Amino acid sequence: MRLYSLSVLYKGDPKVHLLKAAYDVSTFNFFQRSSVQEFMTFTSQLIAERSALGSRASVKEQEYLCHVYVRSDGLAGVVIADNEYPQRVCFTLLDKVLDEFSRQVSKMDWPSGSPATISYSALDGYLSKYQVRTP
């Protein structure tokens, strides 16, 4: 059971853009890591774009399950995990991250924000904390 990606996005007009993301691509071959990360970023944006405001969904993409939560204020979160990772845990994580993000980052910054301009550093910690370690 693994988490690969945790992203916070903003679903505004005309399209969705990434505000902040964390990735764990350590299980992939060194030469594949950047393309896997690009795939996860693209997939996260696409799924958030196709999801309605105020909705939650789980979408299978290749061997991954992508869990998306788009709040009614346009803030969206996407977790990319393997097929065995519990769906309920993913949505609990998304709830927690989006609540905390909306308290720490001004709503004024969401429409124009980017990973370079948004200062929110908790995603890596959450990705690591929610990673299921196999003995």
From TrEMBL:
GO terms for biological process: endoplasmic reticulum to Golgi vesicle-mediated transport; protein transport. InterPro entries: Longin-like_dom_sf, Longin_dom. Keywords: Lipoprotein, Membrane, Methylation, Palmitate, Prenylation, Protein transport, Transport. It comes from the Eukaryota. GO terms for cellular component: Golgi apparatus. It is a lipid-anchor. GO terms for molecular function: SNAP receptor activity. Signal peptide: none annotated. Gene3D superfamilies: Longin domain. The keyword Membrane applies. Residues 8-127 form the Longin domain. It is found in: Endomembrane system. Belongs to the synaptobrevin family. This is YKT6B protein. It comes from Erpornis zantholeuca. The gene is Ykt6b.
